[in-house]
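Morning, I've got a small favour to ask if you have a moment. I owe you a coffee for this, so here goes:

…
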Amino acid sequence: MGNAREARFSQRRRGSLRISCEAMHVDSTEMLKELRIDRSREAEPAGRGVWIAVALAVAALVGAGAWFAFGRMPSYTVRTALAQPLAAQAASTAVLDASGYVTARRQATVSSKVTGRVVEVQIEEGQRVEADQVLARLDATDARAQFDLARAEHDAARAQLADLRVQLAQADRDQRRQEDLVAKKLTSTQAGEDARTRVASLKARLAAQEGQVAVQQRGVEVARVALDNTVVKAPFAGVITVKAAQPGEIVSPMSAGGGYTRTGIGTIVDMDSLEIEVEVNEAYIGRVKAGQPVEAVLNAYPDWKIPAEVIAIIPAADRSKATVKVRIGIKAKDARIVPDMGARVAFLEDRSAPAETRALPGVLVPASAIQSVGDANRVFVFVDGKAQARAVKLGQSFADQRQVLDGVKAGERVVLQPPEGMIDGARLVRDDAK
């Protein structure tokens, strides 16, 4: 019995120990599972975060680029003008070519009328002057002294004239009294005759003094002219091309004193009188007529064709050259045309002759829209509120317009007087109301 009870007790004990061990194993397993890191669940949020960070960085870069492109791009308020197509014109044929120079029909070397020392010069080369404008002044000390003396002598002569008039009035009264006394036989006839003689004498002296006053007046006028001659004035409106004298030098209307005396103050040219003078071979002079249209080109501006016409054929030939001079009037006045410039002219067919009509290539744009960049030229075209820089090829000049052969199309808007620093792509705001 005792053995059997011990056997059952021992069996129950082993069973409880096995259950305890199993429970402990289960608890340990659960605890280990809780401590284990789930890599599959961790990897998914980590990858998603990287992509979110990359997207945010790209968005920031795009935003910064947009801000740099649009926020920092300068904006300009500009005026624009349409590029105009060139109108068709008659194609004239040149019948003769010649070369010559620009000359001025009205040109003068201005000098003083008297010899004197220059104290002031009021001109510079290139200065525009008007008629009667003061160009220089000479030392007027002597001339002013002569003028003051002449005026003083004139005043003295007038004073003497006034005194004689007073004496004559008194002599007239004395004569009337003497005549009354003679009539009443209260005085001698001799006294009456003396009174009449005195009146006649004073009248003669008065007439002589009036003549003297007139002479003195002329003397004052002569002295005034001499004083005015110390001021050199412009004889007509024009441009100063030469400044020949300086303060302190002696000028004279005639050459004197060797190289120490100037004969002029400066040279003035009437720019409105400029024309071209060419020499035509006498064998071809028959092709030239007065009023004939001419196309002139200056050597300094070979792309600028200037409209002109024949003024006259000078009726004299140069025997040594076998040429005849022809005067050509310039129709387009421009500051670029100056005296002594070389020019080439083409005598065109008579206006009455029919001419073939042709269209000129390119478009016309204002000259203020063209910028020079080194040896090239460019314009800024207004396109969708932005500046588009384009290189252009230029042609002829037409007053304040330029012919653009390539780079701009008719109807496009070009920016006038592009602001300094404008770049391609700059934002623009049109203000064509000014």
Remarks:
- Confidence is low (pLDDT under 50) at residues 15-29, 40-46, 67-71.
- Helices lie at 2-35, 39-71, 141-183, 189-228.
